[in-house]
Design a protein that fits this description.
The chain is an alpha/beta fold. It has 5 helices and 12 strands. Helix 4 packs parallel to helix 5. The longest helix is centred in the C-terminal third of the chain and has 13 residues. The protein is globular, with a radius of gyration of 17 Å.
Length: 219
């Protein structure tokens, strides 16, 4: 990925906790972007930005970022202290994890959901199945909105708790159990490197062509 280094000052419009340790940060939108792209964010232009997928649609007037606190991390615990009107530094959008109009599967662990939120809000969700994996039932923070937008094509996989309508187990277990994964669909993978590599291997084993697998790893 060619990392964008050009950085600009933006204005925080809202920071909201949507589940324990998971937040949505909004700031004014000074650029166009393609759903699936990322930005680099920092509070100090001298420090290396951390990368975040844009989670809002490309017709909205705000940029939204979905992130979780990394306890030992540097930026995330500072981001949650921001207040409306504060200054933040953002790069221009970059990356090539683009949503396409072909049918496909949006597969995410944790906050890897973010680029798909942008793609769905931008009108690319109609012929997609969204598979979201999380440890607890609280991981499905945006489930009410997603159920409305995706209906039956929204699958929640929970590894540590049981819930109504929720698949019991990791999303990789869910993928392993699928007998028909169409070879002519696109398979988007986004989240931890463990999930992305395991899911990729399962898809290839099941006959999905390598070229139809598009991945974004959060590290
Ligand atoms: C393409 C891409 C997109 C991403 N999109 C998102 C997103 O949409 N939402 C999201 O929540 N996250 C996303 N991430 C992850 C995000 O960029 C950050 O890594 C994350 O938010 C943690 O940032 P931090 O500054 O709080 O932690 P960091 O300071 O980066 O620390 C992260 C981890 O590294 C360890 N660490 C830090 N410094 C050292 C060191 N010197 N030696 C050893 N270990 C160290 C820390 O203990 C911690 O466990 C994305 C990553 C990539 C690459």
């Amino acid at each position: 990925m060619q990392v964008e280094t050009d950085i600009m000052q933006v204005r925080v419009e809202e920071i909201r906790e949507i589940s324990p340790d998971v937040y949505i940060l909004s700031y004014n939108r000074p650029f166009q972007f393609v759903p699936g792209q990322v930005v680099g964010l920092t509070l100090d232009p001298e420090e290396a930005p951390r990368l975040y997928s844009i989670a809002s649609g490309n017709r909205e007037d705000r940029i939204q970022i979905l992130f979780n606190i990394v306890p030992e991390g540097s930026l995330t615990k500072k981001l949650i202290k921001l207040k409306d009107g504060d200054t933040l530094y953002s790069t221009k959008p970059f990356g090539s994890f683009y949503g396409k109009s072909r049918p496909g599967y949006f597969i995410a662990s944790g906050t890897g959901l973010a680029p798909y939120l942008s793609m769905i809000e931008s009108g690319l969700g109609k012929n997609k199945v969204l598979i979201h994996g999380g440890r607890t039932l609280k991981s499905f923070y945006l489930q009410d909105e997603l159920k409305k937008m995706m209906g039956e094509n929204y699958i929640r996989c929970c590894s540590q708790e049981k819930g109504d309508g929720v698949f019991e187990g990791r999303l990789t277990k869910y993928l392993r159990q699928q007998n028909e994964l169409p070879a002519d669909h696109d398979y988007y993978l986004c989240g931890s490197s463990e999930m992305v590599s395991e899911a990729r291997d399962i898809l290839i084993d099941k006959g999905v062509p390598f070229n139809n697998i598009i991945a974004e790893i959060y590290f």
